[in-house]
Design a protein that fits this description.
Number of helices: 6
Number of domains: 1
Largest sheet: 7 strands, mixed
CATH class: Alpha Beta
Distance between the termini: 15 Å
Mean pLDDT: 95
Order of helices and strands: EHEHEHEHEEHHE
Shape: globular
CATH superfamily: LmbE-like
Helix content: 25-40%
Structural class: alpha/beta
Number of strands: 7
Low-confidence stretches: none
Strand order of the largest sheet: 3-2-1-4-5-7-6
């Protein structure tokens, strides 16, 4: 049994990036923890109704995955580039020192959304072996509408080298994503049922599974 932490810059990133893999971890008896970095609030310009809806979505999603814990750092969305990196690292570090994760999932650093890139850098700072010796495996996930739009000439792009069979969990992943109704749209919108299904099939075709999620292995200690 392993302790797993998935770090999501925004609620829904965990499902888009590795929802099937998280369900597989739970089926295998692993402890799985959800760390959310940002959250909508009235102070950051969202209506009370929107805040309440998002809180309900988080509760429902956590229940569907049967997460062992959910932590929300509640930074304002689209604002992490204005937060001192040291503060972000310290907040994430506190959670890691409480949970002692062995496997960490984080967003790809080259994603188009700056929140994703800042979270990626902060999480990587919390996986150094001499400060966090329990961390044995660090994987970056891809996020529809962010990873595929992260076109930067100074990066090689998302080049997966780990594929996880989610054939048994693809339908459940899509059902969880439906909880985030305001985030879903009609195809060809990237965050759509058809796009999620199609990406899983493409990743499956690349790895010999009926459906898969793809990751970049950033570090592994065995």
């Amino acid at each position: 049994m392993a302790t797993v932490v998935v770090v999501a810059p925004h609620p829904d990133d965990e499902t888009l990036g590795c929802g099937g893999t998280l369900l597989r971890h739970k089926r295998n008896g692993d402890d799985v923890h959800w760390l959310i970095v940002t959250h909508v609030s009235e102070a950051s310009g969202y209506s009370l109704e929107r805040v309440q809806t998002r809180n309900q979505e988080i509760e429902r999603v956590a229940a569907r995955y049967a997460f062992d814990s959910t932590t929300n750092l509640q930074f304002a969305p689209a604002s992490l580039d204005r937060i001192p990196m040291g503060e972000l690292v310290n907040r994430i570090s506190f959670v890691f020192r409480e949970l002692h994760p062995e496997i960490v999932y984080l967003p790809y650093a080259g994603d188009a959304h700056t929140d994703h890139s800042f979270v990626s850098d902060a999480v990587l700072a919390c996986t150094k072996w001499f400060r966090y010796p329990e961390v044995r495996r660090v994987l970056a996930y891809e996020t529809l509408s962010e990873t595929d739009f992260g076109i930067r000439p100074d990066r090689n792009g998302f080049r997966p080298n780990v594929f996880v069979d989610i054939s048994e969990f693809l339908d459940d992943k899509i059902e969880v994503m439906k909880i985030y109704q305001s985030e879903l749209g009609s195809f060809p919108f990237p965050r759509s049922e058809e796009a999620i299904f199609s990406l899983a099939k493409v990743r499956g075709a690349a790895s010999g599974f009926k459906a898969a999620e793809a990751f970049m292995l950033l570090r592994e200690s065995v």
